[in-house]
């Protein structure tokens, strides 16, 4: 079994037995994309690395339940089956790094800033995808800064290198965008990138919907990672709801009536009247009608009393 491929798909969270089975069927020369396709086809689901040997009942916890292991997010472990209420995050490392480096330098610090932002929000599943050749010493035509950050994130099982190799002196690179979209789609998570992945949208209608609905764009402002407050536009969900498995519907806040106590609309007024909370909200006309009705009733009663005398 090809050890490098085995390690790669283990990092993605797939079970060792499933990976070995697929590699045996496809052969040692199988491309990584083909292995991933076969794993998806056979229904293999990513599972927590620490639970591969002994399956735990925790793996069957329904989505959206409260997390019982919040501390794991700082250990960098793979909580693919954790039951927290926040969506898994899949970061396009190249896009984020080049964006932070002003499209001139591959800035690894930009990746760290993005990871830290999601960690502070409480996300327990964060994956960053970067091509393997970024491990190589930087060249003049492809500068890279703070390269040690990649090694640190890899140790925390946050960063995953997509495969690449050299054939007759030429670099053969696997399409890392495909890994990003596939893993995010399978995990029902969020893609962090300013890329629209139009080629992948055209390839699969389900991916098209997913990319349209789950792509989180961002900006860097003075070394601060900033996603928009309205990821899907002004009429879409808030950022908190976008990143949550269970969106919270905000309470409708009523606007106070601009006329206040002088308002003559009574209970027909669509605005909020705090002074009318404990009284019947009648319009002035309705109040006059009610008073007139009472006076007429009293007058008739008086007439009856006089007649009886």
UniProtKB/TrEMBL annotation:
One of its GO terms (molecular function) is RNA endonuclease activity. InterPro entries: Rege-1_UBA-like (IPR040546), RNase_Zc3h12_NYN (IPR021869), ZC3H12/N4BP1_RNase_Reg (IPR051101), Znf_CCCH (IPR000571). Keywords: Endonuclease, Hydrolase, Magnesium, Metal-binding, Nuclease, Zinc, Zinc-finger. Its cofactor is Mg(2+). The keyword Magnesium applies. This is ZC12D ribonuclease. Residues 251-276 form the C3H1-type domain. It comes from the Eukaryota. A zinc finger (C3H1-type) spans 251-276. GO terms for cellular component: cytoplasmic ribonucleoprotein granule; nucleus. CDD domains: PIN_Zc3h12-like. Belongs to the ZC3H12 family. It comes from Onychorhynchus coronatus (Royal flycatcher).
């Amino acid at each position: 079994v090809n050890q490098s491929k085995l390690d790669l798909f283990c990092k993605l969270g797939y079970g060792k037995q499933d990976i070995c089975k697929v590699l045996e069927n496809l052969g040692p020369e199988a491309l990584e994309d083909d292995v991933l396709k076969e794993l998806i086809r056979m229904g293999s689901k990513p599972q927590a690395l620490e639970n591969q040997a002994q399956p735990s009942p925790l793996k069957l916890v329904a989505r959206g339940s409260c997390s019982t292991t919040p501390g794991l997010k700082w250990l960098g472990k793979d909580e693919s089956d954790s039951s927290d209420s926040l969506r898994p995050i899949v970061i396009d490392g190249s896009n984020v790094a080049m964006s932070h480096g002003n499209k001139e330098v591959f800035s690894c610090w930009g990746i760290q800033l993005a990871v830290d932002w999601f960690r502070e929000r409480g996300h327990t599943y964060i994956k960053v995808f970067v091509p393997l050749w970024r491990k190589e010493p930087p060249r003049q035509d492809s500068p890279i800064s703070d390269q040690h950050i990649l090694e640190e994130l890899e140790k925390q099982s946050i960063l995953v290198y997509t495969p690449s190799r050299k054939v007759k002196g030429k670099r053969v690179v696997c399409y890392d965008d495909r890994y990003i979209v596939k893993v995010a789609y399978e995990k029902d998570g969020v893609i962090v990138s300013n890329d629209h992945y139009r080629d992948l949208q055209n390839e699969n209608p389900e991916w098209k919907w997913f990319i349209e609905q789950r792509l989180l764009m961002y900006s860097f402002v003075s070394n601060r990672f900033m996603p928009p407050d309205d990821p899907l536009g002004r009429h879409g969900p808030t950022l908190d709801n976008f990143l949550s498995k269970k969106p919270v519907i905000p309470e409708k806040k009523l606007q106070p009536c601009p006329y206040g106590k002088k308002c003559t609309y009574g209970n027909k007024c669509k605005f909020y009247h705090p002074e009318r909370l404990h009284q019947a909200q009648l319009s002035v006309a309705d109040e006059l009608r009610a008073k007139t009705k009472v006076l007429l009733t009293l007058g008739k009663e008086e007439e009856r009393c006089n007649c009886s005398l």
